[in-house]
């Protein structure tokens, strides 16, 4: 170092040692900061953090004339600021002699005689206690190596421990380890010579530091797991989706393995149930004397593991969950502000009318199917724009976003060209080699990535988030473009838009009134709740005072003279946080959705597009598969029972009496496990032929079925062929 003359490289003691080859200069950062005759006259990116090279040379020449009062060598660039004190020393020498260096304001230095000290009460100067950082004993002495917290009476630290803590936590997180005080604590520590870097905490700067926390438990712990693909297999939106224990989250079960009708149903593991039972907080539901019984309530299946003889539940049987939803709401005593917005008397009536709810559910599902058919026809009209010219995208499934972004931004990419997908990593290719299946698999991975990306926030129904880096890189536009291309080119629909986001896209943000459910930030949501549920003017004003800075930053400060003013304030906060805050990402996202005319069609047919953008695809059922496939007219089914066997087999799959799922059947025939919003091209057909085993023709989306004498023969051949084919492909 040109200032202290030492070769030590110890960032914790002397700061970072920097070498500038072009200037033939090496310097410790702290030596530079504390030198008495130099100032930062340049910008941060000039010289060494604002210290100009010429100024450093002048300071070296000045210090060369001064002798260190500690080591007696020349080059002492630091002087004591106490009046009439003429002591000079090197920074390392000052550290060794227990001088104090204040890394603030004028960067003052005090020698060993004039250094500031902490005052101690006589009672405090006795005994010892634990250092709250290293947990070793620290004596209560007025010594250089020991520091006392200014805000806590019994908080004592080693100086070295505090310095390491400050370097790690940075200015934003360095605070008293006992009471969490920041301002008073930092001010005292700076006075006593602790260096606090002006940067974020080290754990915040480490890339993927919290990656392990994002890993969800995915394992079925039920004693008799029914899934043929193993306990770790998890397929969302199916009966093989893994549900975690609602209490501990460290145990899981497949929906089918615990006879859960829907993912929304609660489930507790055996360990948590036993804890509740011992504490007396857990009891079985009593039978009701009304029309609904314990069997229809569906709660008993949450408590016990299914019998080995119990048939597995189908992924398509959802009605039982919808039947019990109002009852569960009533039992949990939800407030009148619940989703249904009905008085409690109405909810009780609904819980006693399962037939009426069954009818409403059927009508709603029928309405959604009609809307999806309308979307299918609209998308087919838009697909007319797609020509036969091919654009080939090389996709790495392990890095789906970056490879997709690169493909969409390449010069020869056009949304009107036919898209071909080539997976560059063989291990992640789809279980088929047809171009349609590869394309669907690509869009499926892409939609899943978007749903979980930083561009969106929320649990299931998502709104746009505010990511400044994404705005800078125009990623919101690309996301909207990808969704539009996926819809028109036969990919899956997102299905995760919130109603608020959809309405902003269709009707414009100025015509949308957001709700509390749209706020994903827990702290902001809590602030809004405190304001919304304030029951007196004084408590409301106190809450506003506590969150004054937040309201000022949001531009939502308004005079509060009556309790009813809270409603307007809540509305202002919601509009700012959900809409105004993300207005720039929203506009970019809208521009992306204009690709191929998708946004225009959304605005013309909002109800229809809401069914595919705000709702997950309908779970496959026997009725859905039956309607999807058309029996080829050339099939001679008058003399055989092929059609009856086919319908009977679909019923077995739905009731869980088959090892094959509807997704397996679709994958076997089309190469896709789900039905795209635009439908299949060509439309799936069935042929009954005199062949030995079923054949799935994925190029034509055709299923060729054997003519058999008995249903059992038909079922055995179906299951053997489909299961073995998919197993071989996956291997």
Given the structure, what is the number of helices?
Answer: 29
State the major sheet: 4 strands, mixed
- The average pLDDT score comes to 82
Q: How far is it from the N-terminal to the C-terminal residue, by CA?
A: 62 Å
Look at the helices and sheets and give the structural class: alpha+beta
Unreliable segments (pLDDT under 50, ≥5 consecutive)? 281-352
The counted number of beta strands is 20
| Strand arrangement, major sheet | 17-18-20-19
Fraction in helix = 40-55%
- Proportion in β-strands: 5-15%
C-alpha geometry: elongated
Cα-atom radius of gyration: 35 Å
Subcellular location: Nucleus
Pfam families: HECT, PHD_G2E3, zf-HC5HC2H
InterPro entries: EPHD (IPR034732), HECT_dom (IPR000569), Hect_E3_ubiquitin_ligase (IPR035983), PHD-type_Zinc_Finger (IPR051188), PHD_PHF7/G2E3-like (IPR059102), PHF7/G2E3_ePHD (IPR042013), Znf_FYVE_PHD (IPR011011), Znf_PHD (IPR001965)
Pathway: Protein modification; protein ubiquitination
């Amino acid at each position: 170092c040109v200032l202290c003359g030492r070769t030590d490289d110890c960032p914790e003691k002397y700061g970072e040692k920097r070498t500038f080859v072009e200037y033939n200069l090496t310097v410790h950062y702290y030596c530079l900061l504390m030198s008495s005759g130099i100032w930062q006259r340049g910008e941060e990116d000039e010289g060494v953090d604002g210290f100009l090279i010429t100024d450093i040379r002048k300071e070296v020449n000045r210090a060369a004339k001064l002798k260190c009062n500690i080591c007696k060598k020349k080059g002492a660039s630091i002087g004591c600021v106490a009046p009439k004190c003429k002591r000079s020393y090197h920074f390392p020498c000052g550290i060794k002699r227990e001088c104090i260096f204040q890394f603030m304001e004028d960067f003052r230095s005090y020698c060993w005689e004039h250094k500031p000290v902490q005052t101690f009460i006589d009672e405090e100067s006795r005994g010892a206690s634990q250092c709250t950082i290293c947990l070793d004993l620290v004596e209560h002495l007025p010594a250089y190596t020991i520091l006392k917290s200014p805000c806590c009476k019994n908080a004592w630290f080693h100086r070295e421990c505090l310095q390491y803590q400050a370097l790690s936590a940075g200015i934003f997180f360095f605070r008293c380890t006992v009471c969490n005080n920041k301002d008073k604590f930092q001010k005292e520590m700076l006075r006593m010579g602790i260096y606090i870097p002006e940067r974020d905490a080290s754990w915040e700067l480490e890339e993927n530091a919290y990656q392990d926390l994002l890993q969800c438990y995915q394992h079925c712990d039920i004693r008799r797991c029914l899934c043929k693909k193993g306990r770790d297999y998890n397929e969302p939106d199916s009966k093989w989706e893994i549900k975690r224990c609602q209490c501990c989250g460290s145990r899981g079960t497949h929906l089918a393995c615990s006879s859960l009708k829907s993912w929304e149903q609660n489930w507790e593991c055996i360990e948590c149930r036993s804890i509740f039972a011992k504490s007396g907080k857990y009891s079985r539901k009593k039978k009701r004397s009304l029309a609904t019984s314990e069997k229809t309530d569906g709660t008993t299946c949450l408590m016990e593991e299914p019998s080995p003889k119990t048939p597995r539940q189908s992924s398509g049987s959802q009605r039982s969950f919808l039947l019990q939803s109002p009852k569960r709401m009533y039992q949990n005593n939800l407030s009148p502000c619940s989703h249904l917005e009905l008085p409690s008397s109405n909810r009780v009536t609904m819980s006693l009318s399962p037939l009426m709810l069954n009818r409403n559910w059927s009508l709603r599902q029928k309405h959604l199917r009609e809307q999806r058919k309308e979307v299918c026809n609209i998308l087919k009209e838009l697909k007319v724009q797609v020509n036969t010219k091919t654009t080939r995208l090389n996709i790495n499934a392990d890095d789906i976003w970056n490879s997709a972004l690169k493909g969409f931004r390449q010069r020869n990419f056009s949304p009107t060209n036919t898209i071909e997908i080539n997976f560059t990593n063989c291990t992640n290719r789809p279980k088929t080699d047809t171009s349609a299946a590869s394309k669907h698999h690509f869009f499926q991975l892409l939609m899943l990535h978007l749903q979980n990306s930083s561009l969106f926030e929320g649990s299931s129904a998502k709104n746009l988030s505010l990511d400044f880096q994404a705005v800078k890189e125009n990623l919101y536009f690309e996301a909207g473009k990808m969704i539009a291309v996926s819809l028109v080119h036969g990919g899956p629909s997102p299905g995760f838009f919130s109603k608020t986001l959809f309405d902003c896209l269709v009707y414009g943000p100025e015509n949308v009134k957001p709700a509390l459910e749209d706020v994903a930030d827990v702290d902001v949501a809590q602030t809004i709740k405190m304001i919304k549920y304030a029951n007196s003017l004084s408590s409301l004003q106190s809450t506003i005072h506590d969150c004054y800075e937040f309201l000022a930053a949001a531009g939502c400060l308004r005079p509060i003279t009556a309790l009813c003013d809270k409603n307007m304030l809540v509305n202002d906060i919601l509009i700012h946080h959900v809409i105004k805050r993300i207005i720039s990402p929203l506009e970019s996202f809208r521009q992306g959705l204009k690709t191929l005319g998708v946004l225009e069609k959304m605005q013309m047919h909002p109800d229809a597009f809401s069914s595919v953008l705000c709702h997950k695809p309908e779970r496959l059922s026997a009725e859905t598969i039956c309607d999807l496939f058309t029996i080829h007219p050339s099939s001679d089914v008058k003399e055989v029972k092929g059609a009856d066997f086919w319908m009977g087999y679909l019923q077995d799959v739905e009731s869980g009496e088959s090892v094959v799922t509807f997704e397996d059947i679709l994958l076997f025939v089309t190469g896709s496990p789900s039905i795209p919003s635009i439908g299949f091209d060509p439309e799936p057909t069935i042929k009954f032929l005199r062949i030995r085993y079923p054949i799935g023709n994925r190029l034509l989306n055709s299923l060729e079925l054997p003519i058999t004498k008995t249903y059992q023969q038909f079922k055995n051949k179906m299951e053997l062929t489909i299961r073995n084919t998919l197993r071989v492909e996956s291997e």
